[in-house]
């Protein structure tokens, strides 16, 4: 109101303050966008359930955004690839071979492969399994990939 009344020296300060506010707003939006990109990457890295240590450092809005992204991705994966859907989170890197050797780190029970064969996954047992069937169990810590 004083600037409108004729104090021209205040106009510079008002413009400077407004420029600072706009810069701060851009910085905050860039920070929040970067956090969302990192949270989206966590879905691809950890799967649909985040470890409690990661979730502890997220705000309620970020957890809500993660859950909506998780549901949206699951809906899309079910819509492509026929009846069973297509799991896009597997084979993040192109595999060198279709079968891998794995060691069971804890008792899991029976595990069925697509050809109908069931394998008993007991602690310290080693198996030669299709990569795409056991990749999720490797991420969960049930199996360990044995590198020869």
UniProtKB/TrEMBL annotation:
What biological function has been recorded for the protein in this entry? Required for correct functioning of the GINS complex, a complex that plays an essential role in the initiation of DNA replication, and progression of DNA replication forks. GINS complex seems to bind preferentially to single-stranded DNA.
Subunit-structure text:
Component of the GINS complex.
Q: What is this protein called?
A: DNA replication complex GINS protein PSF1
GO BP of this protein: DNA strand elongation involved in mitotic DNA replication
Query: Can you list the GO cellular component terms from the UniProt entry?
Result: GINS complex
Keyword Nucleus attached: yes
- Localized where? Nucleus
Tell me which residues make up the GINS subunit domain: 11-80
Record Pfam families = PSF1_C, Sld5
Q: Where is the DNA replication complex GINS protein PSF1 C-terminal domain?
A: 96-147
Indicate where this protein is primarily found. Answer: nucleus
| UniProt gene name | Gins1
**What family is this?**
Belongs to the GINS1/PSF1 family.
């Amino acid at each position: 109101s004083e600037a409108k009344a004729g104090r021209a020296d205040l106009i510079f300060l008002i413009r400077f303050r407004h420029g600072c506010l706009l810069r701060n707003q851009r910085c905050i939006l860039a920070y929040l966008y970067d956090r969302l990109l990192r949270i989206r990457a966590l879905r691809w890295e950890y799967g649909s359930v985040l470890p409690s240590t990661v979730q502890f450092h997220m705000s309620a809005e970020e957890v809500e955004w993660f859950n909506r992204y998780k549901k949206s991705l699951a809906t899309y994966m079910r819509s492509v690839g026929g009846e069973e859907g297509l799991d896009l989170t597997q084979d993040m890197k192109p595999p060198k071979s279709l079968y891998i050797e794995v060691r069971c780190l804890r008792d899991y029970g029976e595990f069925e492969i697509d050809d109908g064969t069931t394998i008993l996954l007991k602690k310290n047992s080693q198996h030669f399994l299709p990569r795409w069937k056991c990749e999720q169990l490797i991420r969960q810590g049930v199996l360990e990939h044995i590198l020869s």
